[in-house]
């Protein structure tokens, strides 16, 4: 029997973008939002994120997610931990290799 990877209801995934519905509205770029989208990263995005947080894994991740979501780092820091976890989960589903 094949393993079924069930997608959460708060997650919308396409080939080049993931959208995460937040558990509560948050501020992004000066407006209240109920979801955030991350575009698929390029190698350049990863390299730029690493350049901005050389010895800090958390900072590198914040740099990357802020770039992919086109929001400020402070906006991401204002998310609840639950919603940031959703963003992380969405990102990892976006970049995982397609199963055969």
UniProtKB/TrEMBL annotation:
Pfam families: Phage_TAC_7. This is Phage tail assembly protein. It comes from Pseudomonas oryzicola.
């Amino acid at each position: 029997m094949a393993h079924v990877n069930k997608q959460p209801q708060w997650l919308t995934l396409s080939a080049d973008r993931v959208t995460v519905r937040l558990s509560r509205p948050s501020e992004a770029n000066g407006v209240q939002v109920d979801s955030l989208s991350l575009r698929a990263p390029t190698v350049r995005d990863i390299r730029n994120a690493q350049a901005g947080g050389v010895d800090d894994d958390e900072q590198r991740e914040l740099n990357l997610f802020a770039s992919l979501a086109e929001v400020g780092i402070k906006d991401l820091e204002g998310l609840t931990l639950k919603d940031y976890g959703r963003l992380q989960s969405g990102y990892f589903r976006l970049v995982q290799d397609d199963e055969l």
